[in-house]
Every structure is written in C-alpha cells, then in structure tokens.
Specification:
Order of helices and strands: EEHHHHHEEH
Strand content: 5-15%
Distance between the termini: 35 Å
Helix content: 40-55%
Largest sheet: 2 strands, antiparallel
Number of helices: 6
Number of strands: 4
C-alpha cells in the first residue's frame, strides 16, 4: 500500500514521478516485511474444511431426509473437540488415559484412550474433520454416502465463509498498523518542524 503525498512527487519533463524520501522508504520497507509475516501466517492458518470442528448446528442445515438417517444415540465428537484442546482439568486427563494435553493425540491414540461406543444396527462414518456420523444401518449405502456428502458440503460452505473473514481480518491486521505508522511519522515530522521554526 503506497500513499502518494505531495512532498513525494516531483515534476520531471512534464511527467509526475514519485520520489520516496528516506523515511518513506523506511515505511514502505517495514510495511513489506510486515506483509510477508502476515502472508506466512495466513498460509499456515488458512481455514480448511478438515480443520473445522463439528457443531450440532450443522445438522440443522441438513435436509429432513438426511437428518432422519442420523441415529438418535449419536454422534460422538470427542476426537473432533480434542483437536482444539479444551481447558486442562483432571477429568480431561483421565479421559486421555495418560496422553499429554500439550500433544494432539492421533486418531489411533484417541481411540485407545476413549473407545467410541459400539451401537448395534448402526454404521459409523468418519468425516475428514474428525467428526463421526452414526447412521442407522437400515439405509442403503448410496443413501448414507449422499447424506455424508451433504454434511461435507455444509462444512465446505462454512469453511469458505471463514476464509472470507480470515482474509478480511488479515488485511486489517496489515493495513491498520501500516497506516498508523505512517500517520505517526507524519505527526512527528509536523511537531519537529514546529520546534524547528521557533
């Protein structure tokens, strides 16, 4: 982001050429470095459907036909919730059966520590975000796949919305400090010139 100010423009051969002075060059340099840091952070933390933790409200967006297929005893979201580690307490440690809270348990480690209950006449489908949907086995495989795909479409839509907010906030986190730094520099120059004129 380059702000063109009158003091940075010179008239050469009838053309406007932007000339950045020392402090403006420093500001641009620092802004670019800060932008690189923001870009790296966004690349690492960019929202992905696989990282989106399940919420029960997602089921409300399923069609009635798909929602009716979900078994009333399910689902269990311990593994998905564990991906965003909760507050450490004694009960949580007992459930982990010795797994350190600071370390994110793998799927196999979590199953050993907290086995998922086996419900008769059900089919469990694990989604890429770690959420397990429990279906009644009276439905056909194609129907279960259709309901699972519908759930995943909801997750992808949620992730897309989070990406828009993420990019917007990333832009604000970059632009506001840069604008603030620029205005601070202009203010210091204005104050300095006031002392210098006296």
């Amino acid at each position: 982001m380059l702000l063109i100010v009158p003091s940075c423009i010179a008239m050469l051969e009838g053309k406007k050429v932007m000339i950045l002075k020392g402090w403006h060059r420093l500001w641009v340099f620092l802004s670019l470095i800060y932008m690189c840091i923001i870009v790296v952070y966004c690349f690492i933390e960019f929202p992905k459907p696989e990282r989106l933790v399940h919420k029960n409200e997602f089921y409300k967006e399923l069609s009635k036909q798909s929602l009716a297929m979900v078994h009333e005893s399910g689902p269990w979201d311990d593994y998905a919730q564990q991906q965003a580690p909760p507050v450490c307490d004694g009960n949580y440690l007992d459930r982990l059966a010795g797994i350190k809270v600071a370390k994110r348990a793998t799927r196999s480690e979590w199953d050993k520590a907290t086995p998922i209950p086996t419900v008769p006449d059900t089919v469990k489908v694990e989604m890429p975000n770690g959420h397990i949907i429990v279906f009644s086995n009276k439905f056909k495989k194609a129907e279960i796949e259709s309901a699972s795909n519908e759930y995943w479409s909801i997750i992808e839509n949620k992730a897309n919305k989070e990406r828009i907010y993420f990019i917007w906030y990333a832009f604000l986190f970059w632009s506001i400090p840069c604008i603030g730094l620029y205005l601070l520099g202009r203010g210091i120059r204005w104050v300095y010139q006031g002392f210098k004129s006296n």
